[in-house]
Every structure is written in structure tokens, then in C-alpha cells.
Amino acid sequence: MNREMKRQLQRQGQVGPDGTPESAPRAPQQRRSPAPAKERTSPGQFVKEVRGELRKVAWPTRAEVTNYSTIVLFTLVILIALIFVLDLAFAKSILFLFKT
Asked: Fewest Cβ atoms closer than 10 Å to its Cβ: which of 32, 75, 78, 89?
């Protein structure tokens, strides 16, 4: 161990001034008690809570759903066409390269 390492260990408190390792006394680990068991809710209470949460949701309007659906379908058509063209081009090029 070189001088730099000894100095660094001294600054960290892991080595004494004479260079002997010092073991710091470990603090006793605190045991965590298990979390208290939650009481189960009744099915009726569960349904009430679900309805309350669903009322908080910002539902889209019919126009928004139509617009979003149109955008998704248009994007799908574009991507399907792109993949079809690429697949066709690769198939033709492979058949051209490995012509028998």
C-alpha cells in the first residue's frame, strides 16, 4: 500500500495514524417490524372506491376519439405500405442476387 492510499484511508477513518487498520464499531442494525396488515375492504366499498376514481378520469369527447382513431389508422396504413415496399424490394434484390 503506497503513501497516497494510506493518507486517503486515514482521511476516511479506516486506518490509524500508525497505519494499522481500525475497525469502526458497527451500529446495531435496527430490525424493521413488518408492516401492519391492512384490513380488507368489502366488495361494496371496493365498488364505491372504483366509481369514485373513475369519476376523476378526464374522459375524451367523441370528437377527440374520432380524431385520434383516424390518426392511428392513417399511420398504420402508411407503415404497412412502407413495410410492404421494403419487403418487396428486398425479396426482388435477393432473388436477383441468387438467380439460378
From this structure: 32
Provide the domain count of the chain.
1
83-100 tens-digit pLDDT: 999 999 999 999 999 986
Residue 73 belongs to some domain of the structure: yes
Average pLDDT across the chain, whole number: 86
Q: How far apart (Å, rounded) are the C-alpha atoms in residues 24 and 17?
A: 14
- Please identify which residue in the block is written with the cell numbers 405500405: 81
Count CA atoms closer than 13 A to 62's CA, side-chain side: 0
- Per the rule left: phi > 0, alpha: psi between -120 and 50, beta: everything else, 24 is beta
Q: Which three cell numbers stand for residue 24?
A: 469502526
The residue whose grid cell reads 407503415 is: 79
Structural domain boundaries, residue 93: 61-100
